[in-house]
UniProtKB/TrEMBL annotation:
Pfam families: GGACT. It comes from the Bacteria. Residues 4-120 form the Gamma-glutamylcyclotransferase AIG2-like domain. This is Gamma-glutamylcyclotransferase family protein.
C-alpha cells in the first residue's frame, strides 16, 4: 500500500480523482508543514492546477492509501522529473503523522497566485 498526499486535482471531487479511484482503499484529511501553495493556469495543462513548493507555511490536502500500481499513473500525470518531483513528506493526519509521497512543483512560479490559506479547490 502506498500513501500519497494530494492537494489539488487528485482530491476527492476534483477533475483527476477518477484516475486514482480504482486503486483507492481509504482517505484521510491531512496537511504538510514547510510548504507553500500556488494556483497556476496555462502552462501545459488546459485547466487550472496547484503547485506545492518548499517554503514557510502549510498545505492542506488528503492522504490517499493506494495500490502500488497507481504510482506510475500519477508519475505520468504529474510529468515526474519534468514538471513535478515525487518526494517523501510528513503529513499530519487525525491518526497522527504519516510518511507519504507528494509531488513538488519544479516549474517557474512567475504569474502564479499564492494561496496563503494552504488550500486549493473549487476551480473549474
Amino acid at each position: 500500500m502506498e500513501r500519497v498526499f494530494v492537494y489539488g486535482t487528485l482530491k476527492r471531487g476534483e477533475r483527476n480523482h477518477a484516475l486514482v479511484a480504482p486503486y483507492l482503499h481509504r482517505v484521510l484529511p491531512g496537511r504538510v508543514l514547510g510548504y507553500r501553495l500556488f494556483h497556476l493556469e496555462g502552462g501545459g495543462r488546459p485547466y487550472p492546477y496547484p503547485a506545492m513548493v518548499p517554503g514557510e507555511g502549510w498545505v492542506e490536502g488528503e492522504v490517499l492509501f493506494l495500490d502500488p500500481e497507481a504510482l506510475p499513473l500519477l508519475d505520468e500525470l504529474e510529468e515526474e522529473g519534468v514538471e513535478y518531483r515525487r518526494v517523501r513528506v510528513r503529513a499530519e493526519t487525525p491518526e497522527g503523522p504519516l510518511e507519504a509521497w507528494a509531488y513538488l512543483y519544479l516549474g517557474d512560479l512567475e504569474g502564479a497566485r499564492p494561496l496563503p490559506s494552504g488550500s486549493w479547490g473549487g476551480y473549474p
